[in-house]
Each structure stands twice: as C-alpha cells, then as structure tokens.
Amino acid sequence: MEPEDRSLAGLFMSFQSPVEIPGVSNIDFLNMAYNARRRKLGLLELGPIEFYAYLFPKLELVNMKSDFLNRNVNEGFSGGERKRNEILQLAVLEADLPVLDEIDSALDVDALQDVAKAVNGLLTPKKSVLMVTHYRRLLEFIQPSFVHVMEDGRIIKNGDINIVIVLEKEGYKAMSTS
User: What is the rounded end-to-end Cα distance, in angstroms, of the chain?
Assistant: First the structure.
C-alpha cells in the first residue's frame, strides 16, 4: 500500500530516521492528514480552530511546545524532536495499528521517557502497538504484553519480557536451543 492508503486504513509506520519535509509546516501536515482520515471515516473535517483545540492536548502528551507546529516537518529537528514529532503524528491520527520501528534510536534518556510515556498513553485495551527494537532499555518504559524474537526475517521465539533478558544475556543461540 502507498503511505497515504496505509494511513487512511488506520496503519501508522514510524521510521528509524524520520525524513524532513521542507516547505510543509507541522500544523499543515497534521491538519491535512487528520482531516483526510476523518473524510475516510465519513466524519466532518475540523476547521483550524477546532483542530488546534484537538491538537493541543496531544502536544502535551509528547512534551512538545506549540512553536514546533510552525516549523517544517522534521527540518532541523534533533533526533529526540523527530521521534516526539512522529509520536505526535501517531497521537493525532489515532491509528488502529502503529508499527514503531526503533523509536528508541538516537534518543537520550529524557526523550526516551517522553516518547515511552506518550506511547503508553495511547495504548488502550482495543489498540495494539507493534514495536521493533534492539535494546531492552525501551522495554523498561513500555512493557510489552508479548515479545517475538526475529532472526533472518523469521520469528524464532515468542514469550514475555523474560526472553528479552535471556537474549540480552546469552544471545541468539539461546533462542534456538530453548
């Protein structure tokens, strides 16, 4: 599927290194994407004032200041700002299934905690998040219900957080023998 079709279908994909979109402000990008999703769901679009009222609590969720809205999408953003911006996009679009690819990449501890808090705030009993990570640190803040270990494109082990501890301590060899 094309990215816009995935988004309209309720899927959200983050990127390990979110791209810059020069000439497109965050507020315009978020407003257009949000209203496109509303149209797809048969809902009325929100005007600028209503959208800003909807957006403001989402900014607080990811610990972003409102001046980010006037900046171009990810242009000149630090790694932490890019990740926060992606989670802001996720929060605004209210995706049914987010796929978060290494959202812990290039984050300092404060940014990691902010991003994890925002992801935890988006989880509900009816929504799932698929996260890809190589490090246990993220899983200390976002506690997974299930863990799947992949090697060479195949899931080789399923379980809970305990398999992450074994993997980190003993490596992939421990996954194929147990």
Answer: 37
Q: What's the number of CA atoms in the CB half-sphere (13 Å) around residue 171?
A: 1
Let me know the angle formed at the C-alpha of 68 by 87 and 142, rounded to the nearest 5 degrees: 20
Report the C-alpha gap between 151 and 54 in whole angstroms: 41
The gap from C-alpha 169 to its chain's centroid, in whole angstroms, comes to: 27
Do 139 and 153 touch, CB atoms closer than 8 A?
no
Is residue 81 predicted with pLDDT exceeding 80? Answer: yes
Q: What is the pTM of this model?
A: 0.86
DSSP state of 124: B
| Torsion, Cα of 76, 1, 13, 134 (10° steps) | -110
**Structure-block tokens of residue 37:** 């999703």
Other beta carbons within 10 angstroms of residue 158's beta carbon come to 10
The predicted-structure confidence for 109-166, as pLDDT tens digits, reads as follows 888 888 898 889 888 888 888 999 888 888 889 988 899 998 888 999 999 999 998 9
The span from the CA of 61 to the CA of 87, in Å, is 9
Instruction: Residue 148: count other Cβ atoms within 10 Å of its Cβ.
Output: 13
